[in-house]
Amino acid sequence: MPSGGGEPIQVTRAGGYMALETPDGKYLYYTKLNPAGPDSLFRMPAGGGGEVPVLPEVMSWELLCVTSRGLYFVPPSGANTIQLLDAAGGKVTTLATPEKRINAGLAVSPDDAYVIWSQADRQTFNLMLVDGFR
């Protein structure tokens, strides 16, 4: 939908959700739901055109971040690996392998100097007893 208002404009033709635009505004990355397993990632020109498959499996849209350098992501096969799909050459590089599982919220600074994420440091549960429960 135009930011200034008006009628919505259909962009994708074969489905898609959770779109991320490249900083230069040239491309749109988006995921497609796969009920049988991990979602897939696609790219298309922001001004319209055909879609191109980028990654057959992504863990979650929350673990994707697009910068001018490329696409940062966490693959489904390694929930504690941060990878970069280079925008120029298409090469995938592993950038970091944190000791703890990455949960959600991957973000990268605009200058690509910093990557942040959330992780589970611990998980606790409490067992409760209710006296006189009927």
Task: Outline the structure in words.
The protein is globular. The chain contains no helices and ten strands. It has one domain (17-116): TolB, C-terminal domain (Neuraminidase). A four-stranded antiparallel β-sheet has the order 1-2-3-4, with no helix packed on it. The protein has a four-stranded antiparallel β-sheet with strand order 5-6-7-8, with no helix packed on it. A two-stranded antiparallel ribbon has the order 9-10. Helices cover 0% and strands 34% of the residues. By secondary structure, it is mainly beta. Strand 7 and strand 8 form a beta hairpin. The protein has strands at 17-21, 27-32, 39-45, 52-58, 64-66, 70-73, 82-86, 92-96, 107-108, 115-116.
Give a concise summary.
The protein has 134 residues and is an all-beta fold. 0% of the residues lie in helices and 34% in strands.
